[in-house]
Amino acid sequence: MFQILRKSAGNLCALRVQLIGASSSGQCRALTQQQQQQQQQVIELPEVRPPRAVWIENLDTVEERKLGIQELSNEVFGATPRIDIVHQNVEWQRKYRYVSFAHAKTRNEVRGGGRKPWPQKGLGKARHGSIRSPLWRGGGIAHGPRSPTTHFYMLPFFNRVLGLVSTLSIKLAQDDLHIVDSLDIPTDDPQFLRDLVQERAWGPSVLFVDSSDLMPRNITAGTESIDHVNLMPVYGLNVYSMLKHNTLVLTREAAEEIEAKLSEQLHRNDARSLMTKFKVDR
Predict the structure, then answer these.
(1) Residue 10: which pLDDT band, with cuts at 50, 70 and 90?
(2) Quick one: how far is CA 148 from the chain centroid?
(3) 184 with 221: CB under 8 angstroms?
(4) 244 pLDDT band (50/70/90 cuts)?
(5) How far apart (Å, rounded) are the C-alpha atoms in residues 219 and 208?
(6) Deepest of 189, 197, 260, 276, by most Cβ within 10 A of its Cβ?
(7) What is the rounded radius of gyration, in angstroms, for the C-alpha atoms of the chain?
(8) What separation in angstroms does the CA of 186 have from each of 54, 103, 134, 199, 244?
(9) 2 has a pLDDT exceeding 60
(10) Of 79, 100, 99, 97, residue with least CA distance to 238
(11) How far is CA 255 from CA 82, 95, 177, 180, 281, in A?
(12) Closest alpha carbon to 72 in 84, 55, 47
């Protein structure tokens, strides 16, 4: 009798374990499906930032008028500024045009010292062949600077591209970048440009950039006698000039050309060949 009760109790326990196992596996499966659904709901497409929008201004009057809105690409005018790369570009531009003319004469170039100062033997003095030896006062300089010495080196290609992108983004973020419809002004009087810059609070120095190097006559003649207002075509735009001037003024065509060229360079697929060591004779 005892053995029968023991077997029935064992059967009941096994059945209970099976039921618990089945229920627990069902709960785990349900929890897994629920977590997958939650993960699918959480995964979303990355947020696309809208393009930067700036006002298009006029230059035909001293007073400012808004003529429209120009949309600028975020990857060119809204990038995260890299101050280290901007500094590399500035140092590169300052040094590649610098030539040192410091020059020291060697013993062959110093005047005098043609004969032996005293005999080789017999006087108890050190052996000397010329009083213009580097050991003598007034003699030549050993391993001194020789002119002309260039400090030219070439910055990697993409450091130059990122330097332009960072500087344009910094100028726009600081409200020092303005877009105008054209560089046509009504007169060639320099006072008109001085009044315009003062009225619009563009700062002490302004750089006007156009898509072509053939600028309108009035603004070319007006800036001729103003040292702190300069003109530049798109192909000459550089980091040093943008940082040297307080305000950067681009025409609408210049802004579109800069955006197209820099976007093309940022997405080109032959980066490896461009990052090779620069050779002067290539």
Answers:
(1) low
(2) 30
(3) no
(4) very high
(5) 10
(6) 197
(7) 38
(8) 24, 53, 68, 17, 27
(9) no
(10) 97
(11) 21, 29, 10, 10, 33
(12) 55
Strand ranges (E), the chain: 52-57, 66-72, 99-100, 149-150, 177-180, 206-210, 229-233, 247-251
In which residue are the tokens 């201004």 written? Answer: 57
Lookup result for tokens 């550089």: 238
Give how far Cα 38 sits from Cα of 24, 31, 111, 219, 224, Å.
Answer: 21, 10, 90, 63, 67
DSSP 118: S
pLDDT in tens, 18-42: 544 445 555 556 556 666 666 655 5
Q: What pLDDT digit, counting tens, does each position of 187-227 carry?
A: 999 999 999 999 999 989 999 999 999 999 999 999 999 99
172 contacts: CB under 8 Å, gap ≥ 6: 52, 54, 72, 77, 78
Do the Cβ atoms of 242 and 201 come closer than 8 Å?
A: no
193 contacts: CB under 8 Å, gap ≥ 6: 185, 219, 222, 223, 226, 229
Q: Which two tokens stand for residue 213?
A: 């190097």
Binned at pLDDT 50, 70 and 90, residue 154 comes out as confident
Sign of CA dihedral 195, 201, 203, 206: negative
Q: Are strands 247-251 and 177-180 parallel, antiparallel or unpaired?
A: parallel
Is omega for the bond preceding 204 within 30 degrees of 0, making it cis?
Answer: no
Q: Give me the mean pLDDT over the 41-66 stretch.
A: 80
